[in-house]
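note to self: dont lose this again. the chain is below, predicted strucutre after it. 244 aa total, dont forget to put it in the shared folder this time
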Amino acid sequence: MNYQSHCLETWGDLACFSRPEMKVERYSYPIITPSAARGIFDAIYFKNEYNFYWQIERIELLHPPKYIALRRNEVKDKASVSEIQKWINGSKDITPLWADGTQAELGTDQKGRTQRQTMALKNVRYRIHAHMISRDHKADMNALNAQFQRRASQGKCFYQPYFGCREFPAYFELQKTAPTIPPFNIDLDLGWMLYDVFALNQPNSNQAKPAISVFHAQLKGGVLNVPSYLSPEVHKLAGELHVE
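---
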């Protein structure tokens, strides 16, 4: 099957693509992961009813990876869905989540924040190639590709794309011609890298459960080639892959 490939150049001041083995302390991979790259394309164009997903083909590293250490205060609590619904319908006043405050304000002797260390990337720039894959082969892919091209060329997105954390915004530009800037020439064996956190071949659903997959990532000449999600190179949990 022939796919129409799209190319985005993305950049930003900060990024963090956390390695899962580092647990609570965030330590970034030196390059964007396929799942984070897919998220940028989803932010520009994605709709549940069309039942397709973005397959990342390759990622080109345009700036050398540079790390920066950050220590951030994170709020421990989170607002419940039921509380937010009450705020929306006006049955309850909006109650902020306090990071710091008095005992009476917090209702506890403990502060409502925790400090976490982050090893993030700075001054990042990538060129990402991807194409759409229809799960049911019923969608008009020509129309969907044309809509993506229109939205991306006009800088439109459903929400601000980001690099790993929502406070690290990602900016993008659709590449319509052959790139003139070559990738930064570097070879790195990145070991096992997170591929995605959902089963991409399963239908879109708001109730979709996490399904972790990984692959052996190798950066050659500044280019990370990403295998297809259905490829045996992508390792999934037993029972996660169901091909109809």
